[in-house]
Design a protein that fits this description.
About 65% of the residues lie in helices and about 0% in strands. By secondary structure, the protein is mainly α. The chain has one domain. The relative contact order is 0.14.
């Protein structure tokens, strides 16, 4: 089943890449990025928006002029640029290099699906449920960024590998993988918290701590502290480098101010509560969808596409929160906790700072939500099938919009 899900995901992406971008303009107006027709190579369609920042880090390194100097590439984490630099060293930075990047992201995307399939088989009650979960994961609308030159596929691989190690009680391996993931995106700190909790809540491990297949000559508290340190090593290295090279260990946080303009605290708190309660978030999504339909009825406009993205993101946040709570019924419960905690951290740090904004790609790593969806629907195959078809169609639309140069979250 995981191989079939990989094939389905790649097929959707191929169809989206081959569809003429002009078919979207009568509905959504001109694209907000360079029109696909002006991109000299098909591979260029995988390098829009933030991919340019990652590319600049890989080719020219980080730059930092201090806070208040506009958008700067220090706002982006280093792991994916390091991968890009390795690819470019082998294949050059031209069309061949870009094609190589797409090949790597496709490989990482398929690897994450295969790893998730193994995780689903391990924790869900039946293979049928595991198949549904893997299909929901592979055809999620958030997967539209898996083949882009973004760290999405890489983060998902690391997150799923870490969760798989936790289910096997291999906490040393889980900590190292989680630490590496924190160098790909700050939200991956949720993975570090999950590893630490897994160690602290495992009475058998506290009685006989084991790391990397051996019993360390350490009391369990010291071994737990070692796990905690390893689970954040990637972020720690980046902070130390920023301090040494740029003079500011939190330069990447300060640089985010060019994109994120915090709302007043009371407004932010109210937005957070509305999104966390799921139903108000769905109500807001319904209003955005209504605005989209009204604009489309008037002949289409870029605002219609923006409202559509807001609506889909709000539905996505509600879905990931709700399904992660359902996944709390699985063993270990920390799988559901990770999905809920990562999504909640995203809501507080980003979604409440930019009103109406949501980025499905940033919470896609909360893969236990797909486990929760399968747990909820696997005994209702018609409902599950309808949900999967709808999700696949949304993935196709999102990927088409992204390749055509539209703003996609």
């Amino acid at each position: 089943m995981p191989l079939l899900c990989c094939a389905a995901f790649l097929l959707v992406t191929l169809v989206a890449c081959l569809l003429p971008p002009a078919m979207l303009q009568p509905v959504f107006g001109p694209p907000t990025w360079t029109p696909a027709a002006l991109m000299p190579h098909v591979a260029d369609r995988f390098f829009t928006w933030d991919a340019g920042w990652y590319d600049s880090i890989a080719t020219r390194g980080y730059g930092w002029a201090g806070a208040g100097h506009g958008e700067q590439n220090i706002a982006f984490m280093p792991l994916w640029p390091l991968v890009l630099r390795g690819i470019y060293a082998l294949s050059g930075h031209g069309a061949v290099g870009r094609a190589a990047v797409v090949a790597v992201t496709a490989s990482l995307a398929c690897l994450s699906i295969l790893l998730f399939g193994r995780l689903a088989v391990r924790v869900l009650p039946t293979r049928q449920a595991a198949g549904w979960a893997t299909a929901f994961y592979a055809l999620s609308p958030a997967a539209s960024f898996m083949l882009q030159s973004y760290p999405t596929a890489l983060m998902n691989c690391l997150a799923t590998a870490c969760l798989l190690a936790i289910t096997r009680r291999r906490y040393g391996t889980a900590a190292v993988v989680a630490g590496l993931a924190t160098a790909a995106g700050p939200l991956m700190a949720a993975l570090s918290v999950t590893v630490i909790l897994a160690v602290l809540l495992d009475p058998d491990w506290r009685a006989r701590p084991v790391l990397f297949g051996r019993r360390p000559a350490l009391p369990w508290r010291a071994a737990a502290m070692l796990v905690a340190g390893l689970s954040g090593w990637g972020l720690a290295v980046f902070l130390l480098w920023s301090w040494a090279a740029l003079g500011d260990p939190l330069a990447f946080v300060a640089a985010q101010s060019a994109w994120v303009h915090p709302l007043p605290f009371a407004h932010r708190l109210w937005t957070f509560v509305r999104l966390e309660l799921v139903l108000p978030g769905l109500w807001d999504a319904a209003r955005k969808l209504r605005d989209t339909l009204l604009l489309l009825r008037q002949g289409g406009a870029p605002e219609a596409q923006k409202d559509w993205e807001y609506a889909l993101s709000l539905v996505g946040i509600a879905g990931y929160l709700g399904c992660s709570l359902v996944a709390l019924g699985l063993r270990p419960r920390l799988l559901g906790f990770f999905g809920w905690f990562l999504t909640t951290a995203y809501v507080w740090l980003i979604a409440t700072n930019l009103e109406g904004y949501g980025g499905l790609r940033l919470i896609y790593a909360a893969s236990p939500a797909s486990l929760g969806a399968a747990l909820l629907l696997h005994r209702r195959p018609r409902v599950a099938g309808a949900a999967l078809v709808a999700s696949g169609l949304l993935l196709l639309l999102q990927t088409c919009l992204s390749f055509a140069g539209y703003w996609v979250v």
